[in-house]
Design goal:
By secondary structure, the chain is of the alpha+beta class. It has a single domain (about 1-110), classed as Alpha-Beta Plaits, CATH 3.30.70. The chain is about 20% helix and about 30% strand. The longest helix is centred in the middle third of the chain and has 12 residues, at about 70-80.
């Protein structure tokens, strides 16, 4: 089992969610987060340029069985990328081992709980 965490632009959430549903990946968690990597944002406030420390992003967490890791990652890559080449600030995907998953309602454990 793996936990796939994707940090993407807010405006790409609907595209990514719809692409995941088409790929039969329907169980996701979405959070609003702030952060920055190489992307720098500039805002104009009262006529002055202000460089914010953190930019609004969306975090998607998906627990998957091994068979769905590549499908999930490829779907997010295609749906979250800006244009053909992509651009700075499109986001990141992290894949981490998921030691255990437990469904609270039924006490199921492991891959069946996902």
């Amino acid at each position: 089992m793996k936990l796939i965490t994707a940090i993407i632009n807010e405006n790409k959430l609907d595209q990514v969610r719809e692409a995941l549903i088409e790929a039969e990946i329907t169980r996701i968690t979405v959070s609003r987060v702030s952060g920055h990597g190489r992307q720098r944002g500039e805002n104009i406030y009262r006529g002055q340029k202000i460089v914010p420390n953190l930019l609004p992003k969306v975090r998607i967490d998906i627990g998957v069985n091994e068979a769905f890791v590549d499908i999930t990652v490829n779907t997010i890559l295609e749906a979250a990328k800006s244009g053909d080449e992509g651009s700075v600030g499109d986001g990141k995907i992290f894949i981490t081992p998921l030691e255990e998953c437990i469904r609270i309602r039924t006490n199921e454990r492991g891959g069946e709980a996902i």
